[in-house]
Amino acid sequence: MAIRIKIFPLVILSIIVFSLLWLPYFVYMLGPAADIVPALGQPESVSFTVAKGSGLHDISGSLEEQKLIKSAQLFRFYAFLSGKAHQLKPGIYEINPASSTAEIARQLVAGPADEVEIRILEGATVREIDAQLAQAGVIMAGELLAVPLTSSTITEYPFLAKAKNFEGFFFPDTYRFYYGSSAELVVKTMLDTFADKVAQIIIDSRKSFNDILTIASMLEKEVPDHNDRKLVAGIMYKRLSIDMPLQIDATIEYAKLNGDAYDTYKQYGLPPGPIGNPGLDAIGATLAPKSSNYLYYLSDPETDETIFSRTFEEHVANKAKYLK
């Protein structure tokens, strides 16, 4: 019994000494990652995204990677100790590098602004839009891809009648979404925008939605200039009329993820559907193709200029000249 009485105070003393030695280290490591704050003011805020579905391990790792905290491990330790581990909310934050671990944790628990502004670029695929929205914390990765094209959706949006999926119908625009929105709401918002800004234009042309959007999606990825797009649209229509393969380079990459039916080097005619979501300019060029004597074209990789050829021999010469 006497031995135990002597050992117990030693254990307590060791704990106290250990705490005193390590406490300054923990305080330092939980402090701001920006050790030196500029004399003229606080450092600029850093944009930090918590994707929907991200766990504490991923969040803390990203914070350390962006040099917003000194230690991901200690951030996790603090989050568990303070009860905040499961309260971090998805969204886009502006974090001051001079914030301490505790301040950053409180900010992530409080949550971001209610909405996020998302700019969907012309030509983006549904897969890319899904990744963009997930990165912004609007949906979880894969949720947009999983939304089915149902008969009720087609009834509400008749322009989808011959569509294989939603590709081509998510109109590129600037949207505002709530963090943690349902994928179904995102789909509805984008289809409503397509209905408002695009649908009537194609209806008035009395042409197939699927055909117009498919050609426009290829133009969007292949040709940047509006007038050149009209010429290339004319070339595509001409190739289709003489049963010549379209041979659109942009379809090769899309086919790698969606099947050889989209590869216009391997298949004749149009692909089954669009290879992206075109904007109004590409759609307009598709609806107003320009006739010419050209049958071939290529893009100068240095200037993005479209080089046209009348014959295959001219095309081969241009390839040798511009695609070195």
- Based on CA atoms alone, the radius of gyration comes out at 28 Å
Lateral arrangement of strands in the main beta sheet:
1-2
Number of domains: 3
What is the arithmetic mean of pLDDT?
86
Cα(first) to Cα(last) distance is 89 Å
The topology string of helices and strands comes to HEHHEHEHHHEHHHHHEEH
What does this structure look like?
- This protein is mainly α and 324 residues long.
- Helix 2 (56-65) packs across helix 3, helix 9 crosses helix 10 and helix 9 packs across helix 12.
- The chain is elongated, with a radius of gyration of 28 Å.
- Strand 5 and strand 6 (306-309) form a beta hairpin.
- The model is unreliable at 36-41 (pLDDT under 50).
- The strands form three sheets. It has a two-stranded antiparallel sheet. It has a two-stranded antiparallel sheet with strand order 3-4. Strands 5-6 form a two-stranded antiparallel sheet.
- The protein folds into three domains: 43-113, 2-Layer Sandwich (Dna Ligase, domain 1); 127-205, no CATH class; 209-322, no CATH class.
- The relative contact order is 0.09.
- Helix content is 50%, strand content 9%.
